[in-house]
Amino acid sequence: MKEKVVLAYSGGLDTSVCLKWLQVEKGFDVIAVCGNVGQDEADLATIKQKALDMGAIASMAVDMREEYADDFLTHALAANALYENAYPLLSALSRPLLSKHMVAIAHEYGAKYVAHGCTGKGNDQVRFETSIKALDPSIEIVAPVREWDLHSREEEMEWAKAHGVPVPATKKSPYSIDDNLWGRAIECGVLENPWCEPPADIWTLTVDPTQAPDEPEYVEIGFDQGVPCSLNGEDMKFVDIVHELNIKAGAHGYGRLDLVENRVVGVKSRECYEVPGAKVLIEAHKALETLCLDAATQHYKLGAEQQWATAVYQGLWFSPLKMALDAFFTATQCFVSGAVKVKLYKGSCAVVGRTSPYSLYDFGLASYGAEDAFNHEAAKGFSDLHGLPVSTWSAKQGPASGLSAQAEEEAAA
């Protein structure tokens, strides 16, 4: 009886070759799994059937969009997740979800192996394999692209033709693209030269900001305990809000990123992203937190957000640190409810209003006008005490004690 393997299957050339290679070279029975996390796939049924036509013993297209939004993007938004303070983690967020389903399907079919089509240079191999091992350490992982001796796309296509794997008739895009509900990641081709401006044809979710409408658009986003719940006063599911904001913000040219980031495997990589909905929601969520979180929590949370983003980027979604940080962020969101108004215009998104029934902003304390309720007499004592440590330091050790003689002369001059 043949061993079974569950393959993460997208229907493209690489994973199609993987499917056949696992049968021919490894002798496995293959169960193909294609997860819909909001990518631009018109007909997942076609992908499902393609795998069956190539000999898979089972093939499934799983709609994961609502689970992705409700169980993954909500955590990312609570963390205002931006890897290296820039990248909204779109690919890193979908891999643990796909891994979760592949492990469950492996258990269902009694499969000992799980396979993916990632290369040895990218981040996704780490994300898939770390997530799978966290969920079931007994599962063995097969990575065909790391093992086979197909050294070019041409060799891969020749192997495909020789083994009855359907080869796309259209010319391959020079770019490598990964997309889901949270946005699009684009790399390769001319983008590998960080000096080259990204060509216009890489962008599909966003218009050229110079060609965006001449009139701004205002959008009001409602939040309930940190989770988006309405758009322009209309109650909506989170998954639908993200989809709608991708359209609205994209129409105004907002959400383009051009980055050089540090990959998990130790190399720098030039990446371009289109993340209109994600960026709008993160900016709006941050703005609402400034109203609803106390200063100490807000300041501490900034460092925790970077830890969370780094852990998830490195494939550690299922890890003690990340789960502990989730618990902290969940506690911070209890009173992050209200509405934020943003202005979309010519490639920009500006927060122009925010309100919450739990706002810690007190107009009487903040105002400089006649309504001023702040106790100015108490301020002198506070200022004296606040400055006491540096006053003592200056009196005892001198404010220039750490300066070189040359610096002292320059300061005196």
Task: Give your account of this protein's structure.
- The protein is built from 14 helices and 14 strands.
- Strand 11 and strand 12 (268-274) form a beta hairpin.
- The longest helix is centred in the last third of the chain and has 22 residues, at 376-397.
- The protein is elongated, with a radius of gyration of 26 Å.
- The termini are far apart.
- It is α/β, with parallel strands linked by helices.
- Helix 4 (90-109) packs across helix 5 (124-135) and helix 8 (238-251) packs across helix 9.
- Strands 3-2-1-4-5 form a five-stranded parallel sheet, sandwiched between helices. Strands 10-9-8-13-14 form a five-stranded antiparallel sheet.
- Helices cover 43% and strands 19% of the residues.
Radius of gyration: 26 Å
How far is the first residue's CA from the last residue's CA?
A: 88 Å
- Average pLDDT confidence is 92
Uncertain regions spanning at least 5 consecutive residues:
none
Number of strands: 14
Biggest β-sheet description: 5 strands, parallel
Total number of helical segments? 14
Sheet-strand content, in percent, reads 15-25%
Query: Given the helix and strand composition, which structural class is it?
Result: alpha/beta
- The spatial strand order of the largest sheet comes to 3-2-1-4-5
Q: Identify the overall geometry.
A: elongated
Order of helices and strands: EHEHEHHEHEHHEEEEEHEEHHHEEHHH
- In percent, how helical is the residue content? 40-55%
